[in-house]
Design a protein that fits this description.
The complex is a heterotrimer of chains A (322), B (589) and C (343). Chain B contains 17 helices and 24 strands. With 589 residues, chain B is an alpha+beta fold. In chain B, strands 13, 14, 15, 16, 19, 20, 21 and 22 form an 8-stranded mixed sheet that branches. Chain B has a 4-stranded mixed sheet with strand order 1-12-11-10, with helices on one face. A 4-stranded antiparallel sheet of chain B has the order 4-5-9-8, covered by helices on one side. Chain C is an alpha+beta fold. Chain C contains 13 helices and 4 strands. The two termini of chain C are 34 Å apart. The chains are: A mainly alpha (322), B alpha+beta (589), C alpha+beta (343). Chains in contact: A-B, A-C, B-C. At the A-B interface, α2, α3, α5, α7 and α11 of A face β12, α6, α14 and α15 of B.
């Protein structure tokens, strides 16, 4: 328990670090939200500087950071200059959609990667392994951008899948079951694109972890004792391989959020991706910081999960701070 | 359909234009003769039109909205006193049924329509108008519209004469006249007064506001909003406009905006019939759609060049010579008119139009796009591209070439510079690539540097740390007055040399005078003469090297009635109150 | 095909591909920036062997395009004139190394015939030549990025995992911080702050270096978790009990176990950094025009009309996949050789 509390404390420190870094980085980038107004011939520079003063954009960095921290306490998470509203609700509306997409994609990726990697490891050097590796390599070689575009093309050509959005325009009138089906149809393309980009990496790690374990002397010994193959796999090999797979799981959860950015944009999924890119380009700083914090929080949760699981499965790992 | 045949003849005119440049002079004459008086088709009630937006609307509050998406949505929910017809580019009555101008040109007396109601049922009177302008003009609110209503540092004055008469005092004769009222949404005093009193006007009417909180005089009112996905508007039963047969507009029951961030995805949705209207699409996608438009029953319209102009900006700002010695050295070339002329002569504008826009743009040599029928001068020269002439010009100016063909200035320094472009605009990068190759033929080594948009603006507007920029400007109206800041030497948009205290050159001094007097003249013919001279000076002195003006490209399903796009924003939805859905598609071409 | 033969084939391919991209000037048919504005999106030039009179010509030749048809934007072959292909032709100059300019190209059509082996892009530039030049930039990007990331990540992971305690704790927080940071925005900021007047290729290498520096976090994390479980194994514990130095244990026992992992990492890190370059180009932050990279060439495909209409623009994509496959094969082969049985 103390261990967990310690980790949580660390996580909060990490979040503070992330927020500071993004704050400094975004302030270092030249230009600010109001610059575009300067290019509008109908708006005078006096108005632009008055607006800057009104929203405190011309204050020094520490002061802005302090104000932002104060707004977190209020639950606002800063103020979006382009949306004229507190950031918290704005980002959460989108984050929910991204979470839905990535959860689905992670599940899909692992559901394919685990059996794939194990099958390859078991038939190491055989034709299953070789064809499997060729397919994985091809998938790895396919840029996620291209993959998403090809899926978009598929949708456009066949008309089987909706192109973008997460519900049909008439979704409000549908029954619950029809709504779920509608959502699944919209989810399919972006989730497939995401899963296909991470799956090969996962599958190869599963394979390499399994191969390492299967070649280990204790397994050779176990094999020598005549333990059946399935039992060998499930009771001896998998638990040992789990060690590196668990930290991989944490990684796959956290990183999907950043991978999903491009896919969300290309396939028009109303998640954080389009919002963040728009906000970065518009220098709507608080939206970007909040989105970054959210993505960092997801990563931390993923890692925490991995560590806790690791602690449970591998007793050799001693608590770092006991 | 009469309006469709008109749009086709306009298109043909454009093709002639792209093919043979001398036809441009023809256009000036022809366009005035053809300015159509559109007659709206009688529609049928019901149905829904779906339009894709690139981003979410940011706010539904007209006082705060600056971005085009928000303004487009607000445009369907609100109404103005006087409206510019996007097709004729002239004003027509809206909430003000008529107006009178005092003989000295200072005062505008507007007669308001009777029996008009807001979408929540409250009556519309002069009090709402006075209240609205109080908001726009309130310095504490910093509304982006405020600057429009300040003429020569004096805000216009608004006075209620009676319940249905309002008097505006513009303090001096004002060239654009009643165009000033276009797109200024008239707001309900009864529902916003309390918020204004409590200094909360910046917090009301956000995208997440409850539908019943928002009242407007426009054809539609808010029904629901789902973040990142869609905004649904429904018919405003109290809308004041009626069609020729006296039936209440709008015809449509609902207007749905869906958010589709990616243009390709927007095109696919349009092709599959998920959306009915495609607002502004790129040339590549337009040409692609046109290939199979007949089979898909789509009406595609090339409305012709819009009010956007793309140009090469050579830095002539006075920069700190110790800090930016390299830029200061390059400015010696840039400030040299013959150098600028040579650069302009080397530009393959036709090549840019063909390679980058698939023919869907028009080369320009001056600041007014051929789409601006009321103001384009017929006296602008259109010199043919000629590398030889450009080289001769440079040679006469003391430039020379080394053994490898690289251009050297009179001090024998090689001529090279960088051109900054916005990284988010693929077309502009491509134009820069053509320009780069053109200048290479003069022996100038040019590097293209893609920069993120805000960083680019920061350099152009604030630090002046750049050699050259390829950028664009879009005019909000056909009238010359929005260009005041660009052409006056003290103007805030005097891009090539910002913050001049006195005119740096005689022609800049003349430009300043001309722009000043066109603004305070009310007679169109006199203003036209003044502005013709502005165009002439600009084309001769090339403060900006004008390149091209992209066409406005829009599309609609053939089932959409009264689809009559114009070159002014909003291109396709400006008459959404008249648009309707036919039971079966009509022929477009 | 036995293992030896396949090894030979792959090694040959590996060398051939790198030779081509290291010496793009010689293998290309023209310069990467040469525009032929009259022939945008021209399909690949077909090589012919049979003359008009039906005679077979051992020397392949090409036809030109019909002028009148070109003006209307269609590509029709004009059979009135043939242009035979020649080896070691003289063409546009290119720099082999700084100061050595050559003009000899491996292949070319007799003037004024034009040879576009893989068609042209939207400016009428030869896609084949651009692909070769682009390969040079992209492969360089992959190497630099992966080298930086693996080197930094490997060392941090080893130290962190082996020493444990607060060092481990601090570095892992740092890793998490780096992995949580939005590197895309960092890149926006870096490019915008950089001065304008540096060579486009330098900008690019700088950006890739930034990606590499950010990319160390993942390898570090994986190496660390590997070391963490390796150092608890009996033989390591035994070795430590016998008084072996930390350096000895790291080098003799831990590094061999980690090296397999490092190679697996390299196997997808190099392609991944080439992909990072593609992403940068997608956001318009890649190498500036007119210098090509596989990223900027593939970014063309993101335009819907290119994606559907001009199949020859996929060529860099095919090259990319081919290159990745070769890398993949190379890494697995090396991995198998290195995999010292743990004893």
């Amino acid at each position: 328990m103390r261990q967990l509390a310690w980790r949580l404390g660390q996580s909060i420190l990490l979040l503070v670090g992330v927020s500071l870094c993004s704050f400094v980085l975004l302030s270092a980038a030249p230009g600010n939200f109001f610059d575009e107004l300067k290019l509008n011939p109908q708006i005078s520079s006096a108005t632009v500087s008055a607006l800057q003063a009104q929203y405190g954009a011309n204050r020094p960095l520490p002061e802005r950071y302090a104000r932002w921290v104060a707004s977190i306490v209020r639950g606002d998470w800063g103020y979006s200059l382009s949306y004229h509203s507190p950031v918290g609700g704005l980002v959460w509306q989108r984050a929910r959609n991204t979470l839905l997409l990535t959860t689905f994609a992670v599940l899909l990726a692992w559901m394919v990667a685990l059996p794939w990697g194990i099958a390859e490891a078991l038939h190491k050097g055989g034709w299953i392994d070789r064809t499997g590796e060729v397919i994985l390599a091809l998938l790895l070689a396919m840029p996620d951008v291209l993959l998403a575009l090809l899926l978009l093309l598929l949708a456009a050509r066949t008309g089987w899948f909706p192109t973008g959005g997460m519900s049909s325009t008439d979704a409000a009138e549908l029954s619950a079951a029809a709504k779920a089906w509608d959502l699944a149809r919209h989810l399919f393309l972006p989730a497939t694109a995401l899963a296909l980009t991470t799956m090969p990496i996962l599958a190869r790690h599963v394979r390499s972890a399994m191969v390492g374990v299967l070649d280990a002397p204790f397994l050779t010994a176990a094999r020598g004792h005549g333990i059946p193959k399935f039992r060998l796999l499930s009771r001896y090999a998998l638990p040992v391989a789990l060690n590196s797979l668990i930290s991989l799981f944490g990684f796959s959860v956290g990183s999907l959020l950043s991978i999903s950015l491009l896919v969300e944009i290309i396939l028009s999924w109303p998640g954080l991706g389009p919002l963040v890119v728009e906000a970065v380009l518009a220098r709507d700083i608080y939206v970007v910081v909040a989105a970054t914090m959210f993505s960092a929080a997801c990563l931390i949760v993923g890692n925490l999960l991995a560590d806790v699981l690791l602690y449970c499965t591998d007793p050799r790992i001693r608590p770092v701070h006991s | 359909m009469s309006e469709q045949s008109k749009s086709r003849s306009w298109l043909q005119l454009k093709i002639v234009l792209a093919g043979a440049l001398f036809a441009l002079t023809l256009l000036g004459a022809a366009s005035k003769a053809q300015s159509p008086q559109p007659t709206a088709e009688i529609g049928r009630a019901g149905g829904r039109i779906t339009v894709a937006l690139r981003t979410d609307p940011k706010t539904l509050n007209p006082i705060l909205a600056v971005d085009t998406t928000s303004r487009e949505v607000i445009g369907a929910m609100q109404a103005d006193l006087v409206h510019i017809n996007r097709q004729t580019q002239r004003t027509e009555s809206a909430l003000a049924s008529s107006w009178k101008v005092s003989t000295d040109g200072h005062k505008y007396t507007l007669q308001l329509r009777h029996d008009v109601k807001f979408s929540d049922g409250a009556p519309f009177t002069a009090d709402d108008v006075v209240f609205t302008f109080q908001l726009y003009l309130d310095e504490a609110l910093n509304s982006p519209q405020r600057d429009l209503l300040v003429i020569d540092n004096k805000p216009i004055a608004v006075k209620k004469i009676d319940n249905y008469t309002v008097e505006f005092d513009l303090t001096k004769p004002y060239g654009p006249g009643e165009r000033i009222f276009d797109s200024l949404a008239i707001l309900p005093k009864h529902s916003l007064e309390a918020a204004y009193r409590d200094h909360k006007i910046g917090e009301v009417w956000g995208v997440n506001a409850k539908p019943e909180e928002i009242a407007g005089l426009g054809p539609f009112r808010l029904k629901s909003y789902v973040a990142g996905q869609q905004l649904l508007l429904e018919r405003n039963p109290n809308y004041w406009r009626k069609d020729a047969r006296g039936k209440s507009l709008p015809y449509l029951n609902e207007l749905l905006f869906t958010v589709v961030a990616n243009e390709d995805a927007q095109v696919i949705k349009f092709k599959s019939g998920e959306t009915q209207i495609l607002e502004r699409v790129g040339a590549d996608n337009f040409n692609l759609l046109q290939k199979d438009s007949s089979s898909k029953s789509l009406c595609l319209s090339d409305v012709g060049p819009g009010l956007e102009f793309v140009f090469l900006l050579l830095n002539m700002n006075s920069v700190d010579a110790t800090k930016h010695a390299d830029i200061a050295a390059k400015e010696l070339w840039f400030r040299d008119l013959k150098f600028r002329e040579a650069v302009s002569l080397a530009m393959d504008r036709k090549g840019m139009v063909r390679l980058v826009y698939g023919g869907r743009a028009t080369p320009i040599w001056g600041n007014v796009s051929p789409g601006n029928r009321l103001w384009l001068s017929a006296n602008i020269q259109y010199p043919e591209r000629s590398i030889d002439q450009a080289k001769a010009l440079l040679k006469s100016d003391g430039f020379s070439w080394d053994a490898n063909g690289a251009l050297l200035d009179s001090q024998k320094h090689p001529v090279t510079f960088t051109v900054v472009v916005s990284s988010s605009n693929a077309q502009r990068t491509k134009i820069a690539t053509v320009a780069q190759d053109d200048l290479k033929q003069l022996g100038i080594d040019v590097r293209v540097v893609p920069l993120e948009f805000r960083a680019l603006v920061d350099r152009v507007m604030n630090t002046h740390d750049y050699d050259a920029v390829l950028m664009n400007l879009v005019n909000g109206d056909v009238d010359p007055t929005p260009e005041m800041g660009l052409w006056r030497y003290s103007g805030e948009m005097h891009l090539w040399d910002m913050g001049e205290k006195t005119a740096a050159t005689p022609w800049e001094a003349e430009l300043d005078k001309l722009m000043e007097s066109q603004m305070t003249t009310t007679d169109y013919a006199t203003r036209k003469k003044l502005y013709d001279r502005v165009q002439e000076i600009v084309a001769q002195n090339l403060p900006l090297v004008f390149l091209l003006s992209p066409d406005i490209l829009v599309g609609a399903q053939s089932t959409v009635g009264n689809f009559r796009p114009g070159i002014l924003d909003p291109y396709a939805l400006w008459n959404v109150d008249e648009q309707f859905i036919r039971p079966t598609g009509a022929t477009c071409h | 095909m036995n293992a030896r033969a396949s090894t030979k084939v792959f090694v040959t391919l590996f060398i051939a591909m790198h030779l081509i991209v290291i010496l793009p000037g010689f293998f290309s048919t023209q310069g990467y920036a040469e525009q032929s504005r009259d022939v945008p999106f021209a399909p690949p030039t077909r090589l012919h062997f049979v003359l008009a009179d039906g005679q077979f010509s051992l020397r392949p030749f090409v036809y030109g395009w019909d002028r009148a048809a070109l003006d209307t934007g269609t590509y029709e072959i004009d059979r009135s004139q043939i242009y035979p292909l020649r080896f070691f032709t003289t063409g546009s100059p290119y720099t082999v190394v700084k100061g050595w300019v050559a003009t000899t190209h491996l292949l070319g059509a007799e003037k004024p015939g034009r040879l576009f082996l893989f068609g042209t892009d939207d400016f009428g530039r030869d896609e084949f030549s651009r692909m070769l030049y682009g390969g040079r930039i992209s492969i360089l990007a992959g190497w630099i990025g992966a080298a930086i990331a693996l080197f930094t990540g490997g060392i941090v992971g080893l130290i962190s995992g082996y020493s444990g305690r607060w060092v481990d704790s601090v570095t892992m927080r740092l890793v998490e911080l780096f992995m949580a940071l939005p590197w895309l925005y960092l890149l926006f900021a870096v490019r915008a702050i950089l001065p304008l007047r540096i060579e486009t290729t330098d900008t690019f290498i700088l950006l890739i270096a930034v990606v590499g520096i950010i990319g160390w976090a993942r390898p570090a994390r994986l190496v660390r978790s590997m070391v963490l479980s390796a150092k608890e194994r009996n033989f390591v514990l035994a070795s430590r009990a016998m008084g072996a130095s930390h350096f000895h244990i790291l080098r003799k026992h831990i590094l061999p176990q980690v090296s397999g992992l490092l190679l697996t990492m390299a196997a997808y890190l190099i392609p991944q950094f080439i992909l990072a370059e593609v992403t940068l180009s997608f956001l318009g932050l890649g190498i500036g025009e007119p210098v090509p990279s596989w990223g900027t060439l593939l970014a063309e495909l993101q335009k819907y009309n290119v994606l559907v209409n001009y199949w020859w623009m996929y060529a860099p994509g095919v090259a990319l996949v081919a290159l990745f496959l070769i890398y993949h094969w190379a890494s697995t082969t090396i991995q198998q050789k290195v995999e010292v049985p743990i004893a």
